[in-house]
Amino acid sequence: MYRNSLVQEYHNFDSQFILLANQSSSQFPKLLIYLLTKQNIMNLFTYQSQYNQNTNENHLFLPSFLLRIYLILYLFLYLSENDIGDFGAKDLGTAIAQYKNITTLTLELYWNKIGQKGAYYLGTGIAQCKNITTLTLNLDWNHIGAIGTQELVTSIAQCMNITILRLNLSWNYIGDYGVKYLATVIAQFMKVITLTLNLENNKIGAIGVKHFVTEIAQCNTITTMELALGENDIGDEGAKHLGTLITQQNNISTLTLDLYSNYIGDEGAIDLGTGIAQCKNITVLKLNLDWNIIGAIGAKDLITGIAQCNNITTLKFVLGYNSIREKRAKNQDQVKIWPFN
């Protein structure tokens, strides 16, 4: 055993592998490549390293029993709140690219100082996995920007079998152009039925939403749509564009819109209500309009629109911190309001 070796204890790889490492998180992608090139694994789970503030070390643990299975189909990597950066992302992309049989890929990489180059490397690796049907990618609190977004999703677009797509790009400052690139690529996925996008706090305005709507409107296969745009600046115009998009998505049965803190007023609320009213197949509706500037009139028309969806069985509706106050909308008493989650 070598004291400074990344693998401290390595016996028979087929029967037992024990990792007791105190290594920098930036070295973990190299360990992953080492493992994956030694033997195939059906389910590989890497547990999020625990940061020790006293010793400034990360402790990694990989269950030995997972190393007895021979074919990767599902890959889950939880490496959030580390410091892998662009170079670590490059190593991860290289490792992922080697396993072309993956059908389900989950990468939890939020808060990792990943930039434009790292996004490119990750996308290049994922693009080699043509059999992916479910992709979950969390890059929250990194700094990939608009160009990084373009390079990431352009590569992912080569995985044409994706039916469930979940992307969290919040707090990445992708802006209007980033949203445009993202939507243009998503429109190419002709098999997507579940689309979940978290784009909170990304300096997105009405123009970005317009680009998004124009492209996503082409996705007629979507039945579940979850869109988080909180803490942007879409305003009434952006809300109007979203209402238009909703009108065109006749197959949606589950709709979640998280639009808190977006300067949406009465006009925007009315347009949202008009759009929702056209989706007669909705059974689950979650709508968060917290911290906007909606008044009594906007709230009334919004609820009136929702009331036309007679098939709704689950409704979560938040209108806190708006301008309704004592002027309660006439129909608001008919709607029970739940905490949004």
Automatic annotation (TrEMBL):
Keywords on record: Kinase, Membrane, Transferase, Transmembrane, Transmembrane helix
PANTHER family assigned to the protein according to its UniProt record, in alphabetical order: NACHT DOMAIN-CONTAINING PROTEIN, RAN GTPASE-ACTIVATING PROTEIN 1
Species of provenance: Tetrahymena thermophila (strain SB210)
Range of residues in the leader sequence: none
TM region(s), chain numbering: 60-80
A GO term, aspect molecular function: GTPase activator activity
Pfam hit, one: LRR_6
Recorded superkingdom: Eukaryota
GO annotation, cellular component aspect: cytosol; nucleus; perinuclear region of cytoplasm
Protein name: Kinase domain protein
One biological process term in Gene Ontology: nucleocytoplasmic transport
Keyword hit for Transmembrane: yes
